[in-house]
Amino acid sequence: MSCECTKCGACCVAPDIAMLDKPLGLVCPHLGPDNLCTVYEQRPATCRNYQADELCAAIDAPTLEERVQKYLAHFGVTEEAEQIRASGITSLTEWRRRRWAVAAAKKA
Question: Given a cut of 80, is residue 73 above it in pLDDT?
Fold first, then answer.
């Protein structure tokens, strides 16, 4: 079901966006201070194809940070997002490399 976009910015922070190399829980580099996309006309297909849905209504909250936390909790990825933030990594590719390296080390 499609809903009207509230332009809250949560979809530009909470999920990872591979086409932009943006990790989970970090602000998209193109999200402006008004929570609007600064490259809207040239945004990648992933963003262009996104449609607001019932999850947008379910995570409604007064602040962007509260909406993002609700989104992450909904998918059970709050801890991973916290790890990404704490690591200082700003690249999805680098985060995945680190996770794979840790997993490989545990198997060895």
Answer: yes
